[in-house]
Amino acid sequence: MTRITSGSPAPSPTVVIAPDAFKGTATAQQAAQWLGDGVRSVIHDANVILAPMADGGEGTSSLFAGERITLPTTDAAGRLTEATYTFDAETETAYIDVAAATGLPAVKDHLVPLTGDTYGTGVLVADAETRGARRIVLGLGGSATIDGGTGILVALGVNPLNSRGLTLAPGGGALVDLADFDTAKMNIPAASVDWILLADALVPATGPRGAASIFGPQKGASEADVDALDRSLARLCEVTGVDGAQPGYGAAGGIAIGLTWVSTLLHGTSEHVTVLPGAKVVAEANDVPGKIAGASLVITGEGRFDSQTAEGKVVSTICDIAARAARDTDSSPVVAVVAGSFEAPVPSPDADHPVIAVTLEDIHDVQEQLTRAGAAAAADYLRISTTQG
Fold it and tell me: Assign residue 224 a region: left if phi > 0, alpha if psi is -120 to 50, beta otherwise?
């Protein structure tokens, strides 16, 4: 986190607003706009720069340039739905959010921790390849599944088998019986693309900090389900020979495991799969570090600030960028974090220089919530700057 230095605020302070989406209520673009409206209501001459963010979860693909493609597919429960991704023909790159087809909100009424799969995401991948995509940038946040990416493999013609040679049922729960894969009908062009996997949390696939243990409960997994899914992912790693202990291999229910295996099978090396922290990639693609370097106030936020925030989420990434700006430049931006709830303490440089924490007011209108939060952050910034001056 960044330190607040003494001195009066500039007459026209630059305010960078870089929130994540507030899931289910506001997109990152909406959140940035409404927080900015709140800032301007308090600091009328503020130079407000909107920099909506994502960490690989919902809304990531929309932050990249290209044509928006919408097509029918299936959700994590196998029900028909529509999903949208971004295709940049010039760079032959498709930007796909796992959450678009395989996201948790779509199955809130019918959670599927053991049987949900990523087949619907694989449909998007296959479609992108037919349009000319040679690189898939896959945002791994917000999934409803823990299937190790096997649903994507099935969509690409690769079927998981048990020891009797029978195709396994969909979902991570069945993977404990995995023995082999049938690749006879593999969609080789789609499976052989370059994969850039944007992890929203750099957790391993298995163990106490793995996909099932950390994310299983929010996907509907009971304690027994978590244990079963952890064993299933361990079995997938055993059969594929993929090291699930690598950072980010637990994101989106272990998708990197299946994709690393099939890519290595086709290319003879895992070099065509890269797992990166999603928020950092999005920030760099949109020059957020450059914008923050000249800022007086930086506002970020997410729906819930909790123990997972530090695993590479947007808020922790923006705070790290602001801290680097304080170290590397003459500026020292004040940081404000907006959240619907704070379930973990917000780290501060020291007791005298706390980061501003703004909790959304309990009102129904989301736009009004975020506008008031932006105003509160701006007012706190002015108060701190005046006190320090």
Answer: alpha
In angstroms, the Cα distances linking 361 to 146, 370, 373 are 34, 9, 8
Spatial distance between the Cα atoms of 385 and 10, rounded to a whole number of angstroms:
10
pLDDT tens-digit map of 67-123 = 999 999 999 999 999 999 999 999 999 999 999 999 999 999 999 999 999 999 999
d(CA 143, CA 18) in angstroms, rounded, equals 23
Domain boundary assignment for the chain: 14-52+287-388, 60-279
Tell me, which fold does domain 60-279 have in CATH? Glycerate kinase, domain 2 (3.90.1510)
CA distance 370 to 300: 11
Q: What element of type H or E holds 290? A: helix 288-293
Q: Are 313 and 302 in contact (CB under 8 A)?
A: yes
Residue 4's pLDDT band (cuts 50, 70, 90): very low
pTM of the model: 0.87
How many Å separate Cα 248 from the centre of its chain?
A: 11
Fold adopted by 14-52+287-388: Rossmann fold (3.40.50)
CA distance 53 to 64: 11
Angle (nearest 5°) at CA 287 between 99 and 380: 85
Percent of the chain with pLDDT over 90: 80
Q: What is the residue type of 205?
A: A
Strand spans (E) along the chain: 14-17, 47-50, 67-74, 80-88, 93-97, 135-139, 159-161, 180-182, 194-199, 273-277, 297-305, 334-342, 356-359
Residue with more model confidence, 71 or 355: 71
Dist CA 8 CA 25 (whole Å): 36
